[in-house]
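Can you please make up a whole protein chain along with its backbone structure tokens because I've never seen that pairing?
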Amino acid sequence: MNHQDGTEGGAQPEIDRAFDALSDPCRRSVCRYAMRTDASRLDHAEIADYVVDRTPADRDRQAVATELRHVHLPKLEAAGLLEYDRDGGAVRADRERIADRLELLRATVAELQADPADSYRRH
């Protein structure tokens, strides 16, 4: 069975990966940073500083940097929100791709918020 986004039934749909990736405030901060910078290649240290500045004061910068490297950046890459080279540590962001994924999420939320009677009328 194919999902609306074209993936097979056994694979996690693109929309699910995007919602999952953005369910964490740290990952949302990374996307915010990527959308606010002009660079396509992001500096890991600058990302960590940006995230630390937006998290509770008790967060250790080294712990955040480690979580970024091993958890958050791979999850954002799996969701198609950025490219992450785990070996070299390079992070590449395509703002247009991020904007497209965010628009997909917005459209999905709008569809969920729509009047349920509308969907019955269409079918």
